[in-house]
Amino acid sequence: MSDSKKKAQVDLSKDVQKDQSQILQKEMIRGNFDKLARADQNPDDKVVYTFVPGNLNELVHCFDVVGNYPEVNALQSAMQKKTGAYVMEAERSGQDEDVCTYVKADLGMMRRGNIGPSGQKVAEPDLLLLSYTGCFTFMKWFELLRHEYKCETTMLHVPYQGDGEITKHMRDYVVKQLKEETIPALERVSGVKFDIDRLRENLRESAKAEEDLVKVLETAKLRPSPIDSYFGAIYYVGPMFSAFRGTPEATAYYKTLWAEVEDRVKRGLGPVTPEGEMGEERYRLVVEGPPNYTSMRDFWKMFYDEGAVVVASTYTKVGGNYEFGFRHDPDNPLETLADYCFNCYTNYNLPQRTDMLEHYMDEYQADGLLINSIKSCNSFSAGQLLMMREIEKRTGKPAAFVETDLVDPRYFSASNVKNRLESYFQMIDQKRQAA
Amino acid sequence: MQCFIGIDLGSTTTKAVVMDENCDVLGRGITNSRSNYDTAAAVSKQEAMIDTRFTLLEREISKLGGASENVHALLEDLERNFRKTQFLEQLGDLEQTCDGHITGARFSGVEETVRALMLDIFDAIREAANEIYAPGAQRKSDFFRDIAGSRFMREAEERAQVADIPYELLMNVYDKAIIEVENRPPEGDLRGKFLDGLEYLFTEKSDIGVDKDQLRTAVNTTLDIELEETYVVGTGYGRVRLPFPKEHIRSEILCHGMGAHIMFEGTRTVLDIGGQDTKGIQIDANGVVKNFQMNDRCAAGCGRYLGYIADEMNIGLHELGPIAMKAKKVPKINSTCTVFAGAELRDRLALGESRADILAGLHRSIILRAMSIIARSGGIEDQFTFTGGVANNESAVNELRKLVKENYGDVHINISPDSIYTGALGGASFAQRAVMA
């Protein structure tokens, strides 16, 4: 390596401040990619692909299989600026411009040798486990992967909360599928017999971690908020939403994270940004919608440079929502898995999403609502304007709308987004002055 | 005298408005943004200050006996002559700069011929200045680049052919020089230009309806007034390039909302179609922005689209609307993509459709896109104000009126002849509030 390259690397690492919890998380993620790379060499190591929303991690871990999360790979690749090429690769292979870019990033990565964000090969799946929680695209995505890999596929159909409630019938329906479809499929693929006590133990670990995560997220009610509940919380929910929920490592991670955040609370500090401590907290925002991952640091900078902190976000609930009391319950192991799936944000209907946003606006004393509409995610975007207007009406607080994409760099127009955000912040100022 | 200035740095044009402490508009200035926002800001501000002097002069002249009846005509004449002086000054600069570029291997053996041609060309343009700035003369543009450029091309083409010198060689000299000249704000000897303009006027007209000495005194009195730049607010896409602190910078959303409110107090919804963005803005009774939507990363259907069409048709931007108004039918054109616009135009012309009809269809298509942005910002509430350069295009306005009626019924639509200055007006108002509030 040339000296200039070495210097560039040193400068980059110096640029970003890392807490102990971040280092821990990095090690955990690296460990899982190591497992996926080993599985590629060892046919006895079985690999299950599944998605973040509705993931049955506690159950999956009962079968000694390695979990892989395609959308996590896509977002991590995006942060490494790799997805532009993956998206184009997928388009070359027949995916249209408007197809979800998570899907295209994953397909493109696969076509380029399935080299994951860690630089290691990601083993092919032995089982595609689709836990369907409101996003229709996930079903199509696994259909495409099944076509490529020709492996066993199983789908857990989680009824959508169309009426905004979970009925006994819905729960029974999911539990029946878990017993009759999901568990037998995992047994078949792994060759490991299901042990409900092992599941209970995993669920116990989940509940502990969930408790700490909620404590962390709720600190954003303080002024100044010690965390950013969007850009920062995307990292915080990482272990919980991916391969680690239900493991002692995840429990340890959240314990460490909570200790760090609690310390910030005691010292009255604001959030940590990639450039260090954020300055004065000037705007408290609630954000609806996923972030942009290809220019995440630039995007975040547009907020913290203006003193804007996100105090609550809905995206950080897509892999499970714990703020309203739900915890995985070891005493009702299958029922609790069903309840978890019902409560993923993607499975909420529009009135539920709107109520949740209103709750955040009030509880977290937000100055306004910002929607980041994702170009290629119809599932998230449908109804967002309607929700925005309803929140404006209910709270009297200003709302704004920006448009980006998840992992397609072509859909991030920095000047346009910055222009809208600056306008929005000034709009909040103007409202304050008028009041 | 305290002056509060708003500068709107748009992608195509930069506008400035000067306001006094009572929120009365004193002057407006506009220039092309010339991809150099610093110069554009300086020039537009200078232009607005010049306009301010004319406003103050109008007040001064009104005090003169017998002048009140024809004060507007007199000021128009004076301004026209002032502009001529300004034009000749910049033309001299352009000539000198061109001369500096006639050097190097490319001119080997033809240097003297090119110099002689340039001399001829500039003499011809100088001579044409009287015609360009004659009473009642129509100018396609007031920007120096446009006026000098079109004349230079015309004169250079003729002379190059006769002298057997490549036309491109002359144009290359011009292209290099005009960039330098444009990026040099005009000299600051305002008094000299006013007085020269006045002398031109006296030569042009023997009877101006007012005593010449009194007029000279009025001009001098006006020029003696010290105009203090009390507070400047910048807005528009180029605002971050402005050389002043962050608190002096406002978003164009807020400025257009406030500007529209000042122009028409009953405004609740604003549509602004600028060079590279289209904005739908909802405001309250105080001009405070409630919500907004704008086009995303794609500038399809914005003002530049019309500019591109005008270029394709080799006509002036201001000619598009009148031609489109002659349409007998409005064809459905869904593409607002600027890149496809040329192809769409040529295809339809090849199919035998009339230019007027096609242009009407193109105008409708951009307004349709604007309607979608307005709808997403919350729809149209009475009163509705249309701002930005495109609001001066009668065909765009015509299509807008039809679509507003179809979708929202009877809504009062406001369009100011000064709509292009809306953002700068809002900026000036924020500047005034920053000090006076």
What does the model show?
The complex is a heterodimer of chains A (435) and B (437). In chain A, strands 2-1-3-4 form a 4-stranded parallel beta sheet, with helices on both faces. A 4-stranded parallel beta sheet of chain A has the order 8-7-9-10, sandwiched between helices. In chain A, helix 2 packs antiparallel against helix 12 and helix 4 (70-79) packs across helix 6 (101-111). Chain A is built from 18 helices and 10 strands. Helices cover 53% and strands 11% of the residues of chain A. In chain A, strand 1, helix 3 and strand 2 (66-68) form a beta-alpha-beta unit. Chain A starts with a helix and ends with a helix. Chain A is of the alpha/beta class. Chain B has 437 residues and is α/β, with parallel strands linked by helices. Chain B has a 5-stranded mixed beta sheet. A 4-stranded mixed beta sheet of chain B has the order 3-2-1-4. The mean pLDDT of chain B is 88. Chain B folds into 3 domains: 2-79 and 192-248, no CATH class; 101-182, no CATH class; 268-415, Nucleotidyltransferase, domain 5 (2-Layer Sandwich). The chains are: A alpha/beta (435), B alpha/beta (437).
Structure, briefly:
Chain A is an alpha/beta fold. Helices cover 53% and strands 11% of the residues of chain A.
Tally of DSSP β-strands of chain A: 10
Distance, first to last CA of chain B: 18 Å
Task: Say which CATH homologous superfamily of the largest domain in chain B is assigned.
Answer: ATPase, nucleotide binding domain
| CATH class categorisation of the largest domain in chain A | Alpha Beta
Output the number of helix runs of chain B.
Answer: 14
Per the CATH scheme, the topology name of the largest domain in chain A is Rossmann fold
| Helix-and-strand structural type of chain A | alpha/beta
The main pleated sheet of chain A reads as: 4 strands, parallel
Radius of gyration of chain B: 23 Å
- The CATH architecture classification of the largest domain in chain B is 2-Layer Sandwich
Instruction: Indicate the multimeric state.
Output: heterodimer
Largest interface: A-B, 22 and 19 residues
Strand content of chain B: 5-15%
Q: Which sequence of SSEs, written as H and E, runs from N to C of chain A?
A: HHEHEHHHEHEHHHHHEEEHEHHEHHEH
Please give the order of strands in the largest beta sheet of chain A. 2-1-3-4
Order of strands in the sheet with most strands of chain B = 7-6-5-8-9
